[in-house]
Amino acid sequence: MKSPLIKIVTILLAVILIPLIFFTVYEISSLNQTEQVLSRIYANQLDAILFSVNQYSEDLISSWRNKLNNSLTDKELVNAFLKVYGSVNYVFIADGP
Fold first, then answer.
1. How far from each other are the two terminal CA atoms of the chain, in whole angstroms?
2. Per-residue pLDDT for the chain (97 aa), expressed as one digit of tens each?
């Protein structure tokens, strides 16, 4: 026959452990959802940053193209432009297939 002390300890452990187990499972599942939300936010921010960098690059190249188009008739202006914007030497535009 079980002693009353063992029954009381068993009931107390059940009363403490069952809610603790349910709370732990709930917290782990909400943690996974939070990680998914953070992952989506990170991906969206990365896309926005890449879009901004691409937009800036396109604006810069367009500016260079316009400056170069305006000075194509004068060889000295082209040389001066290439001295100021040396990195233009590494840019090329492929027109067509």
1. 91
2. 568 888 888 899 999 999 999 999 888 888 888 888 999 999 999 999 999 999 998 898 888 888 878 777 778 887 888 888 877 777 665 555 5
The tokens describing 89, both together, are 């030497």
In the numeric block, which tokens belong to residue 37? 């939300």
What is the per-residue DSSP string for 54-85? Answer: HHHHHHHHHHHHHHHHHTTT-HHHHHHHHHHT
CB 78 within 8 A of CB 70: no
CB 82 within 8 A of CB 89: yes
Dihedrals phi, psi of 85, to nearest 5 degrees: -115, 70
CB 64 within 8 A of CB 74: no
